[in-house]
Sequence to fold (380 residues):
Amino acid sequence: SAIEAVIVHLKLQIANEQYGASAERTRRLLDQMELQLEELEADATEDDLAAEVAAEKTAMVTAFERKRPARKPFPEHLPRERVVVPAPCSCPACGSSQLSKLGEDVTETLEVIPRAWKVVQTVREKFSCRDCETITQPPAPFHVVPRGWAGPSFLAMLLFEKYGQHQPLNRQAERFAREGVPLSTSTLADQVGAAAFALMPLYRLIEAHVLAAERLHGDDTTVPVMAKVKTDTARLWVYVRDDRPFAGTDPPAALFHYSRDRRGEHPRAHLSSWSGILQADAYGGYGELYAPGRMPAPVLEAGCFAHARRKFFELADVASAARKKSRGDHTGMIYPIALEAVQRIDALFDVERGINGKDAAERFAVRQDLSAPLMTELHA
Fold:
């Protein structure tokens, strides 16, 4: 019951963090709470099974039954393998062979086929012409990496595990060895580097597509980097092209850049050849992009109300103050003007949700009719 109470408490905490104020630093806290939650739920299930075994051996003890969440049905796209248990040929009660089928019960069990390794041998036969003595042979098979030994599926798995699942190459090498395929970490690193080189044309196409946009959304976020003494903080710069809110037909895309610091020279280098409308926060590093004499043309600044709202929200976070008060922690003052500012900005967001996907003329008309008075009142 103590574990049950902790599980419920953790679920409430996770829900509050997920649907509360958005902040990058809460992601690590959520990861830790999710890990603690799954450990507790595993322990609770183990305790349930131990209690059931103990109850079977002791007639005077009733097993405690934990209320488990209802399991969702297995996805429909998964293939079904039908295994029919043979029915008896005669009635086990009287021995009669006159049996008629009344129906059937189906029990579904989720299974997985373990990863299978194989070596593909491509045989290229050589032939010699008896007339001219010319030797001919089909060309070698295509490899993503020139003169490579790794197939495309293997490379895709390697990259996804490293960058999508955050599995370092040394851990992948250990797992491959346990599966009977010993590959050194340096060998895998060579394949990652070669695959990154092979994918560079795709990256350049995405970059050209994003920088061809008339408007971009820009932001940066922190990235922890292992350093000699302590973990260092690097930056990931993201530039997004998405014209769907403006009824645009071009596909959305995101362009990523990495840097070890947050100096303003980085966004200026990223957007050195681009001009248009940039929606971003008030970071000073963007300042030179907005300069009138900037070449090839000045960038038009579009402020971000999500960033503007965040500062007011921190002063008017009623829910956070209530949580601190319930824990007996010191609660800061809730500022009425900040709370009113949050409510007025939220009203602007409501207008934007209603015109999302409309063409530019319709959005402009609605903004002049509904948003402009709200902005005037907010300014006052």
